[in-house]
């Protein structure tokens, strides 16, 4: 029973995390702000245009 | 806050006075100096000018003038000192805050490409920005802070430029930053081994009449040559202090910032504004144009009129654009045109060339007095000697291919040792959890989901580090630029420039920075083309997939197969570029000179930093997106649970994915009936009701992938790889669960892959992976759908969703077609 509850919590957290990041990705790339990639060199930097 | 932003009766303490020339002098004389208190008395009826009280007398300033004075207010002091705020901001606290602000210096790092700005920036700010021995590594500005001697330095690292004209986006960007952001000090990083060319940019900074300090970087190379350079004399001559530095070793950095403080506080006697003499005719023309520009006091308070006048004579479109907002622009334009014609008629040469010649003559004159040595250094001679072989007409290309082959051999062979150690550790973790935990869903989640998924990917960390070691070596030695040079002719054949090859090579690391680095490509169509073919360069995220499949099915020549996959990616990029160039992007070739920097010995520090950054990014991915994806994939394979009442008591104990895997090996017919054929009436797992969600998803995708020889688990793995390519491996780790009794994690997975059988379709019961399927899977992973981060980068660089959507569709379509050909042609060849 405890295992089941913990499993459900972990899976639900993972799904929430994924949904949150998908939404953030579209919001931020839509605004042309920050890339979600961990290796993105554009973080906190200005863009040449 | 700017003084112009203060409200009526609000008080602030002056922290900085910007502006230049006569304005700055006048404003300082009036008492607007650092540390003085100033209060807004009232605004004129049209909000301009504003009356201020300073040192007990009233003075009015135009809003534009007041905007050049920085102040700190009580509100700001409150925000900056939340712990010391007890209801009322005392004068003392306000003054302390002001003093702190007065000791903040905004710095811009400006210099030629590859002069070592980012190395200096990294050393000073302990940042880990990417550096390399080739032009155009920094493609955007980076900011960091550094503290020394009680001062705070806000440093902005700008992209490298050869001049401040408007030829490239970088030049426009740097110029805009200097004129718009008005940094307190510009540090001009000059490569000591290439003084003449580097000082050209310095002459333009001198024209701008701003506070400049020269960091004479790589000074050790100059000393090694035995040259004598009286940099102090040169500094006095041009009115710019010069500090020798070796930024890769941190030599001279403290002195550089000490000098910055002196210049900022106007305590350095070297600083003075000089005029580079362009000859009588040009000087006369400059004066006439300046006379017109001076009529706009508000403009000349901020920017040097001489700088604009020179730019107008250089036919600089950005200068015209900036001046077009001012009232007498038409007169300025007419005067400039008239003077231009006069100069060109009188001197019989293009005015731009006349000014450039004068600048170089000035530099040559200055160096003649201060520099004694070989202009052609021993360092250069060494470089030329090495280049005789590495860029040789016939030898250059085979050497490049050999280097690449060694890189992939080492990635595979050397990587296999630490890989086995990690693998054993992961396997041990699984065995321990299996022994310690009671049966249940959490145990299955940890063993099959987390350890099976994340553990399956983490073992490839050594391969990634070795690959990045080689990429870092290529970048730091200067071989990257040579590789582009060697490839130039081939790139021309496919309609691109050798310059496009650097972003493509960088794509071996990660496609995102590679796509961004295309900004150095001048021609818009060439840039777009390079962006679109970049996903064919196998990024490090795809490496785990290759290594897994190659380890399982190509055991005789793994390194060569890995090399061939990368080479195939390059060939496909070339073929697609050729096709697009002839259809979508028809343009003429743009001539461009490619710089070949001197060879430099890479520093251990930089290489280690590069590898560490990539390694930590990889580990972060493990704890983030890959862990989450593994859990979700596991859950999709685990739920819904079979109905215990219908299935009998044993059904609830085994999770379906494991059950499916076992069934697939023992009796594929039964599994096919139970999972994928909805028309059957008595399957062991009722179709549609108790099938795991992942099977249902697999069933939807399967018809599309079946012609390529992929089973549903491969198809699902490929779909999950859209988020990040490593997830293909973690998903396979979860879906092809093997025998838990096997100790090594990768051994389990490889064993499962070798044993996997088709569960449906015409090849039902046959093994999924033969050489043809394994090859077509490798090719599909190489070519299909760029990951979401790469798509975001394409969107950012092209400014529209049209191109990422196009990249998404054409790469996947191409992947399907090529994989189909490979699947059907390979059996004929073997």
- Overall average pLDDT of chain A: 68
Counting structural domains of chain B, the number is: 5
DSSP helical segment count of chain A? 1
Q: What structural category characterises the helix and strand content of chain B?
A: alpha/beta
Most extensive interface: pair and counts?
Answer: A-B, 29 and 43 residues
Distance N to C terminus of chain A: 57 Å
Oligomer state equals heterodimer
Provide the gyration radius of chain B in Å: 33 Å
Share in β-strands of chain B: 5-15%
DSSP summary, beta strand count of chain B: 13
Keywords:
heterodimer; A: 49 residues; mainly alpha; 1 helix; 61% helix; B: alpha/beta; SH3 type barrels; Rossmann fold; 6-stranded mixed β-sheet; 37 helices; 58% helix
Entry summary:
The complex is a heterodimer of chains A (49) and B (830). Chain A is built from 1 helix and no strands. With 49 residues, chain A is mainly α.
Can you walk through the features of this model?
The complex is a heterodimer of chains A (49) and B (830). By secondary structure, chain A is mainly α. Chain A has a domain at 1-32. In chain A, 61% of the residues lie in helices and 0% in strands. Chain A contains one helix and no strands. The longest helix of chain A has 30 residues, at 2-31. Chain A is rod-shaped. Chain B is an alpha/beta fold. Chain B has five domains: 3-95, SH3 type barrels; 103-264, P-loop containing nucleotide triphosphate hydrolases (Rossmann fold), CATH 3.40.50.300; 280-348; 396-585, no CATH class; 621-829, no CATH class. In chain B, the strands form three sheets. Chain B has a six-stranded mixed β-sheet, sandwiched between helices. Chain B has a five-stranded antiparallel β-sheet with strand order 4-3-2-1-5. Chain B has a two-stranded antiparallel ribbon with strand order 11-13. In chain B, strand 7 (142-148) and strand 8 (151-157) form a beta hairpin. In chain B, helix 18 packs across helix 26 (558-583), helix 19 (441-458) packs antiparallel against helix 33 and helix 20 (461-477) runs antiparallel to helix 27 (604-638). Chain B is globular. The termini of chain B are far apart. Chains A and B meet through helix 1 of A and helix 6, helix 19, helix 23, helix 27 and helix 36 of B.
